[in-house]
Each structure stands twice: as structure tokens, then as C-alpha cells.
User: Fold these one by one.
Assistant:
Number 1:
Amino acid sequence: MHVTIVFYGCVYVNRVSDQQRTELTSMKVVSAAESSVMMKMNDLTSTKHAMFRVCDVTKVYDMGEVQVQALRGINLELYEHEFVVLLGASGSGKSTLLNIWGGLDVPSSGSVHYHAQELTAASDTDRTRYRRDHVGFVFQFYNLIPSLTARENVELITEIAKSPMNAMDALDMVRMKDRANHFPAQLSGGEQQRVAIARAIAKNPTVLLCDEPTGALDVQTGILVLEAISRINRELGTTTAVITHNAVISRMANRVISLSDGMIAGIENNTERIDASELRW
Ligand SMILES: Nc1ncnc2c1ncn2[C@@H]1O[C@H](COP(=O)(O)OP(=O)(O)OP(=O)(O)O)[C@@H](O)[C@H]1O
């Protein structure tokens, strides 16, 4: 069956019945937005479950006389348990998108769903709760508390989280259990970043968002950090998004999302993922 169809909005494919699914997959699409629709059609045939649905999202920073258009109509799904890398030139909108996923920021228009919850319609309190319960953040700089040991830094989170893991187990995931009683000043940059990752995962988040986690590290140390992030994705099933300027890192991802000037420039599926330990740059 061939149906001629024009899409004007976002179609949430998980909401269609099996019959509609079969019909939709046999449609012939003829619209200006053909490529983005085709992306959604491909999703119809997959068994992946979307964790995030980003629909027609824009972000404008209003700086008084100047308006900065950081995102210009993003349509994207992020699937449960996947590992994505966000690539793009400086200023292309990577951090803005990550912050919107993480509930740190809201778009100027469009919608973002986390499963059935529409983050863009949530109150500040609900967005804070969403962040606290579901999201782990890792940034370029580790922001550990200098007067607390590695273990105590992680326990800051385990003491307030709803269903945390044991702080020592979190440190073990990043191979820092042996250094649990050391203070940040007694640890290298890469070791501090691994403690920061342990702190981020200790609440058992469903999604781990990493903004340039290896940006301040040398190659060998960066690889150890990427191994830790990869292990968390593999063993805990935590959906993971990593921002980087380093295209080599994209080889360890399931999908590579490239941004350019606030738009998606391309999405690539990696048929073969490279283990973090094999990366070199
Ligand atoms: N708080 C803000 N106020 C005003 N403009 C902002 C703000 N945050 C980001 N921008 C602008 O939005 C655009 C996208 O920024 P964003 O930080 O998302 O890009 P990026 O791809 O993460 O860049 P980088 O790789 O350099 O971190 C840029 O032009 C930036 O200057």
C-alpha cells in the first residue's frame, strides 16, 4: 500500500497500534521535511524504546539587544540504554541540548518528553525532582569538595538519593575503591574525574549526561575515564550521552549525533563499537 502523506508536526511512533505501525511503514512520504520523517519511519520498525523525545525544540538566549539562537528546530529521540556521542563545533548547541535533557534548562519552543513526562510542561519543582531522581551529570571540571574524602564526596549523594547504590560500589565501578579515603588534592585529575563519575552514578540514575568529561585530561587518563563511563553504560544499562570535540571518541558510541549551528547535521549508527581501551588520539 502506498499513501501520500505530509507531516506538519511531530509523530510519536510509540503511540501507534500494531496495525497503524504496519500501515505507516508502507507509506510513501512526499514532504519538504522528508528526511526527518524518514528518520521517524525507520524508528517504527525498531524495537528500541525512546527515553527522550525532543520535538521541534528551539532555544533563544535573549541578551537584550542581541538574541542568540542556540537551537533551531531539533527533532530527536534518545533510546533506553544507548550510548550516544554529541559532536559539533564550538557554539553548535551541544551543551544547550544536554542541559535541556537534564532539566537544567528549558527550550524556547517545542517539547521534550522523558518517557511519558513532558519536561517542558513540568513545574520547576517537578523538574528539580526529575533531575534529582533520574539524572547524573559529569562536567569537564570535577567540583569535588576538597575537605571530604572520595568516599564522603560520593556519600553526599547516597545520603539523599531515593534508591542509591552503596558508595563503595559506586567507587568500585570506576576502579577507585582503593582510594576511597583519599582527599581530592591527593588524586590526579583523571582520578578526581572518576570520583565525580562515581558521585554521579551513586544515585542510580537512568541517564548519565557528560559534558566534555575528558576535556581537561591527557590521552591515557582520558581513556581510563571513558572506560569507566562505558562500563557504567554496559553493566548498569544507564543511558549515556557524551559531548566531545574529539571525533575519535565517537567510535565507542552506538550513535553519533552531529550538531551544526543549532541543527542536527547528521546521525550515524556505529555498526561496530570500539572499546574505550582501544581508542587513541
Ligand atoms: N547562558 C547563555 N546566554 C547566552 N548565550 C548562550 C548561553 N549559553 C549558550 N549560549 C550561546 O548559545 C550557543 C550554543 O552554545 P552551547 O554552549 O550550547 O554550544 P556548544 O556546542 O556546547 O559549545 P562548546 O563546544 O564551545 O561548549 C552559543 O552561541 C553560545 O554562545
Number 2:
Amino acid sequence: MAAIELKDITKEYRSDEIITSALRNVNLKIGSGEFAAIMGASGSGKTTLLNIIGCMDIPTSGTYLLDNEDLGGAKEKHLSSIRGKKISFVFQHFALIDDYTVFENVEIPLMKQPLSKAERKKKVLSALKLAGISNLAKKKPSNISGGQKQRAAIARAIVCQAEIILADEPTGALDSKTGNEIMRVFSELNNMGKTIILITHDKNVASYAKRLITIQDGSILSDEAI
Ligand SMILES: Nc1ncnc2c1ncn2[C@@H]1O[C@H](COP(=O)(O)OP(=O)(O)OP(=O)(O)O)[C@@H](O)[C@H]1O
């Protein structure tokens, strides 16, 4: 089943008199449990595509079906609940709150849910374990390494049991050894059944995926199993 289906999606940004076509007639299906990398030159439309898939942005035209639900015209409240439940994000610069401990950062997505403190704790500890940072729960982000920060961001992304994880340049701020460690975490999550879609400029990073989608000038240039 295609968890994600984009039909003839276009995205235009308008500012003053200038219209930028960020995506042009994109057709794409990504099934449940896939691991896809998106590559393409700067400005080719990768982030726009990921943001539309992640319900962070809406297309100018075309149809987006998520688990067969047409999201055209969906209200922000509904899109926001999808972001909490079905889809979560990992960002290049981690987006952790410095004043919170790692535990508290990972707990954030659970605060919207009707869970007891004990239930939240159980879920956070399980996510930290999966991300390989059980020992860092009490640390603040300023006292851990970049790779550990990204593991904390991954723990935060999986704590709600979202099935789809989207990552925009998740290794972009890391050295290559640490980047490889992070990619192994994504591979493990994919082996557990998570759908992973990530943007990268790095062919080595993309090689962890099982499908490579290349974008050029807002269109899909190639889409192949790797
Ligand atoms: N909010 C915006 N307003 C106007 N134009 C935008 C906006 N966001 C993106 N664009 C334009 O849309 C096009 C696609 O941008 P996008 O960020 O999706 O590309 P990208 O492939 O992710 O680039 P990079 O690799 O540099 O992050 C670019 O021409 C960009 O300048």
C-alpha cells in the first residue's frame, strides 16, 4: 500500500510580482516501510517536497493522499494532529530546547496526549533506548555531542510511534563517522518497519536508503531502487 501518494503536485511561492515554481507536476508514491533518499541541487525543491509530505506546507495544486486520505482542504488543526501521530521530523540542526534535559526534550510530543506521567516516562525511556542514549536522559543538549543531539532528536521523533519519519539533512551538521552512526540508527528504525524519507547532499548517506529519488528544478529526474 502506498502510504504517501502525490498526484500532479505543484508548489509556487509568490512574493510581490515574483512567482517561484518550487515543485512542478510531481507524481510520487512511497509505500509503508520504504527507506527513500531525496537528492538534488540546492534550490531544486527537496525541502518543499518534504514539507508537503510532512503536512508542514500545502501544495498550490495537485492531490496528496496519506494512507488513502485526501488531505486537500484539510484544516491546520487536522494537519497538526497528523504531524503528531503519523509523521515526525528530524532536522539538520536538531531543534532541541537547550533549557530542557534530553528526557524533557523527548517527552515534548507526548505532552499533547492524555497520558499519565508514568506512561510518558515509560515511552521516553523506550525511545531513548532505541536511539542508544539511555545514559544521557538527564543531560542538557549543551553538554552532549552533535551525534548524541541527533540521537535525542530521533528519540523525540519516534516517541509518539509515528510510522513515517522525515529527515532534512540529518547528518549535515555531523562529521562523516558520526553521520554514519546516525544513518545506522535510521536503518535500524527502517528494519523495525518505519517509513523513512530523508534529504541529503551526500551519496554515502543516501546509500543507506533503498530508493533514491533525484529532483531537478522542481521535477523528479530519476527514481530508482538502490
Ligand atoms: N518561503 C519561500 N518563499 C519563496 N521562495 C521559496 C520559499 N521556500 C523555497 N523557495 C524557493 O523554492 C525553490 C525550492 O526551494 P527548496 O528549499 O525546496 O529547495 P532545496 O532543494 O531544499 O534547496 P537546499 O538544498 O538549498 O535546501 C527555491 O528556488 C527556493 O528559493
